[in-house]
Amino acid sequence: MVIIINANRLIIVHTQKLSYNVWNMEKTKIVIVGGGFGGVYTARNLQKYFDCDSAEITLINPSNYFLFTPLLHEVATGNLSPESIVEPIREVFRDSC
Length: 97
Description:
Number of helices: 3
Low-confidence stretches: 10-15, 17-24
Largest sheet: 4 strands, mixed
Helix content: 10-25%
Number of strands: 6
Structural class: alpha/beta
């Protein structure tokens, strides 16, 4: 089963009949398109429901960082440095599989 979630909350579920035996089970593959607030929090919450052996969660984003946009105006006025509102996505998911 493949589940695709994009930023517009569109969920496309594609299933196909797989021939497998008990010893060679396929993982559920979940693909999340977009690394904004919705994508990052969806991926983090899905990790609570699936263990590493039962699902593979993939987050696709054009950039490799998470931008905390509510504080962007603070950077524009000079109160914060740009490094204060940017977090690498790999750091957000450091404790995952």
